[in-house]
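User: Second chain of the day. Same drill as before.
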Amino acid sequence: VIVRGGSRPPERMPANVHSTYGLTETGGGVVYDRRPLDGVELQIAPDGEVLVRSPMNMRGYRRDTGAVEISDTGAGEIGPIDESGWLHTGDLGRLDADRLLHVQGRRSELIITGGENVWPEAVEACLVDHPLIDDVAVAGVDDPEWGQRVVAWIVSGSPPSLENVRDHVAHRLPRFMAPKELRVVTSIPRTSLGKIARGRLQ
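Assistant: Same format as last time:
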């Protein structure tokens, strides 16, 4: 049995692979195969943020003084945990009719281009299949016309043209999700867990 987590799961997985969802602040995985563990409650905020309430949730962040403190953000929340005990995860998602959790991604990674929402991982999943691309990362870059534009950082010994990449993505996704810019790099920055470090791309 393989248990995987840390990013949105692929659409198809072998029967022996199980997907988990959780955060450091929840002490690890609290949702398995889209179903919460016993004692774990899920809720979707009006803005689409995933909220988690459980006995495993942290109480607060340990400060340099050694004290555990939760600071008021001034936005009706206390740190990431509100007064009702809901942890604000920073992830966007939905609960389907069977109350199964579908996580779309980190709110901070969502690209809004020309009023359309683009999730980087969906574009990356298309581009890893391109025969001339060895590795890829996608993120939004500020753009005066579009608000943000979709940019792909690619590792390639023989880089494809931008139009070729856009056509490749448009075969599976709406064309507005296709990159408007390519940046050829020697490697993609990643965390120690292998996740793309999007904040270091630029």
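The longest strand covers residues 87-95.

User: Great, on to the next one.
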